[in-house]
Amino acid sequence: MALESTTILVSCKQTRLHIATPVYEELDIDGLNIAVTSASASEPGKAKGKGKAKSEGLELLNNATLKLKPGVHYGLIGKNGTGKTTLLRAIHEKLIPGIPYETRITALKQTAAGAIDETSSSSVLQAVIERSIAKDDIQRELAILQPAIDDHHDSFAALRAIRRVQHERLKTQLAEMDKDARLRSGSRGFAARKALVEFEKKVKAHEALIDEKEDGIDATVLKEETEAALQLTAELQDKLDPRRLSDLESKARKVLAGLGFAEKQFEQKVSSLSGGWNLRCSLATCLLQESDILILDEPTNFLDLLGILWLQRYLVNLRETASTTVLLVSHDRSFIDTVCEEVIILRDQSLTYFRGNFGAYEKDLRSRIKHLTKMSDALDKQKAAVQKTISQSIKAGKASGDDNKLRQAKSRQKKLDDRMGMNVSAKGTRFKLNRDLAGYHLSNRAEIEIPEEERGITMFIPPAPDLRFPGPLVSLENVSVQYKGHPTLALKDVSLVVHMADRVGIIGLNGAGKSTLIKALMEVFKPTRGSVTKHPRLRLGYYSQHAVEHLQTKGRNDTTLTALSLLTTEVAGELDEGEIRGLLGSLGLPGRLASDVPLEKLSGGQLVRVALARLLWKQPQLLVLDEITTHLDFYTVSALANALSGWNGAIILVSHDRYFVKKVIQGEVEDDEDEEEEGGSEDEEENKRRRVVYSMRDGVLKEESSGVDGFEAGLEKRINKLL
Question: Which UniProt keywords apply (predicted)?
Fold first, then answer.
């Protein structure tokens, strides 16, 4: 759902702390409710009262707790559609009561909507510097003040100028107070609205000062306001001081270089940049600004591995040099685990906190599930044994008329019903009723609740059919490619042979030749030298890094097109509707999601599944996957990795996602993962697999004997130099 066409409804518990805290120290907000509703269903700009977020629109958070501490780096984890981006937007726009007005919040959005103005005539370096210091705002105020101060013929010019600037600032503050008053409720909402009314009077009174006649202005007032104009002008000019800008430019150059810009690109016009490079400019701007809270929504999407590693190191260093709180969303597990000190799990309309990275969280969760399962099994056995003695006592008491036995059985039954449950608290201490089970309950013991491990969707990839006769699926022999008008080769003597069940990973920096290699393999063009040979019965499935954008264009051109109708047209009778639905369902697009929701309404992650279905219905023996994880959430990346790991066909994977390459290509298993889950009986088939990771640099394909880790280690010197 496009956030631009929705209204966010927010409510929470409000305390005096929220009103009294003038600056950001930490956020600790209880009872947070967030819902979204379509713009047509809610009057634009009209805030809802307390509790409305629960009853209207799609509820994303219900009675959650938002806690952010200064200087801590948080990873926000959750499935697509659970509300991560909405929560980030609510924080960035200060829609949540309790976020101080003065809090400096900088945010990088996923889409180009938050990117630098593409119509700008500024160079990349200029645009990044100017936006990081809000140069337009400074120059707008200086354009009012400076001519007035330089006007020696009009002694009232400076006074009128400072009043204009002050009035514009008051109107900005009034808009923020109006938003704050609409967000608050109850007695504090009444107080905020009362303050708003008083401030409106102040703004109106100040507006009258702008038109005040000169003969009514006191000489003392004239002197004071003229001095104020001079002082404000000096402060604004200081922000544009060449020495300060020189230091900022030096830092900007380092940041841009770290994010992949070459020196010659610094002077390139922003208007000439593609969407991905424009977003890199926005990321550079965010990193240069001084912020209390830095929000980064999928910052690695358009970075190559060098850029990802540089940003990773930059954010780790930021923990030691600044008190900036970082709130990060990313599908890159290796990136999250390295950068983040704590994770926030958004699940079931609630926020759960864990001190440690996501890898530690998963390990701890599996350990707790294992421990609580054993405890539950032991308790069940204990209950069964007690129930058996109760039954025997009742039977014996009735047979002999022994009331003592019946009373004893009744006492045991009461203990079984009321006091058989959790014997330890959540902290691992001995369970105490008055401390660990507050409130009224039917039982005097808490039930043993075994948490579920978040697995996301389960994907199934149909097995690849056998070939009728053996041989390599695809073979590249001494392939070289030279584009017309380019003096150097884009590919240099590349040789590659792929057999059934092989796992081949290709990693490298942007511009290294990966896309050219894929195009040569797909026979988009004929190589300058060398040959490409394919098995005569090969069925090949190719996922392009632009597959999602292609489907989005299809959806915009035909607003009635759904995943089911698209595939029905493309299979041309090869599959019936039930088989198509089965395929879409196996990839996480079941029922009405496949048949009723138009393509233009599907998320990026859902469109990835549609693109996969378009390949898999043909039952290919070889999948060529180019940056397939870009639009997927954290859990779907894991689900797809698991599905591909057990598939019997061959895979050629181009990706910057280190976890995904290690899982699918190198066959690495996460810590504490059950061996049975990984196949167990398929060991013989696994041993037959050829697993190899290649790196590309300047058109040369080189085998990395140490896999992704070896390539990453080779980049460390370059990262140190860039930093």
Answer: ATP-binding, Hydrolase, Nucleotide-binding, Repeat
Q: Which amino acid, 589?
A: L
Q: Residue 495: what are its φ and ψ, rounded to 5°?
A: -125, 130
Integer Cα distance of 141 and 167 in angstroms:
11
- pLDDT digit string, tens, across residues 408-422: 888 888 777 766 665
Q: Parallel, antiparallel, or unpaired: how do β-strands 529-534 and 540-543 relate? A: unpaired
Beta-carbon contacts of 439 under 8 Å, excluding residues fewer than 6 positions away, are none
Distance of CA 88 to the CA centre of its chain: 9
The SS3 call for residue 408 is helix
What is the token pair recorded at 446? Answer: 């808490």
* Pick from 707, 648, 615, 330: nearest CA to 501: 648
**E strands, 205-360, where?**
293-297, 325-329, 342-347, 350-355
Token digits of residue 631: 């639009």
* Dihedral pair phi/psi, residue 166, rounded to 5°: -60, -40
CA distance 602 to 593: 9
Alpha-carbon torsion angle 365, 368, 369, 374, nearest 10: 170
DSSP 524: S
Rounded to whole angstroms, the Cα distance separating 701 from 516 reads 12
In 3-state terms, what secondary structure has residue 691?
strand
User: How do beta strands 342-347 and 491-498 pair?
Assistant: unpaired
The Cα–Cα gap between 103 and 317 comes to: 22
State whether residue 638 is helix, strand or coil.
Answer: helix
Torsion angle in degrees (nearest 10) through CA of 117, 118, 123, 129: 20
CA distance from start to end of the chain: 38
Which two three-digit tokens encode residue 387? Answer: 């129930």
**Packing angle of the helix pair 563-571, 604-616 (nearest 10 deg):** 20
Rounded distance, CA 672 to CA 681, Å?
18
CB neighbour class for 524 (10 Å; exposed up to 12, middle 13-18, buried from 19)? exposed
Give me the helices (H) in 477-546, please.
514-521
d(Cα 104, Cα 289) in Å, to the nearest integer?
9
Cα–chain center distance at 312: 15
- The strand order across the sheet containing 491-498 reads 491-498, 474-481, 529-534
Q: What percent of the chain has pLDDT over 70?
A: 84
Q: Tell the residue number behind the tokens 């969303």, with chain if given.
A: 329
**Residue 605 pLDDT > 90, yes or no?**
no
Lowest mean pLDDT among 104-118, 145-159, 603-617: 104-118
CA 307 to chain centre: 17
Kind and range of the H or E element at 140?
helix 135-150
- State pTM to two decimals: 0.78
| C-alpha closest to that of 85 among 253, 300, 298, 227 | 298
pLDDT at residue 1, rounded to an integer = 39
pLDDT for res 57: 67
Closest CA to 106 of 338, 279, 327: 327
Q: Does the pLDDT value for residue 434 go beyond 70?
A: no
**Is residue 281 within 8 Å of 115, Cβ to Cβ?**
yes
Q: Please report, for residues 530, 611, 622, the alpha-carbon distance to residue 511 in angstroms, rounded to integers and kept in the order given.
A: 21, 25, 25
Question: How many Å separate Cα 156 from the centre of its chain?
Answer: 53
Mean pLDDT of 567-587: 91
- Asked if the model's pLDDT at residue 642 lies above 50, the reply is yes
In angstroms, how far is CA 596 from the centroid of its own chain?
27
Strands 58-68 and 325-329: unpaired
Do the beta carbons of residue 253 and residue 266 sit within 8 Å?
A: yes
Give residue-wise pLDDT tens across range 657-684: 999 999 999 998 765 454 444 444 455 5
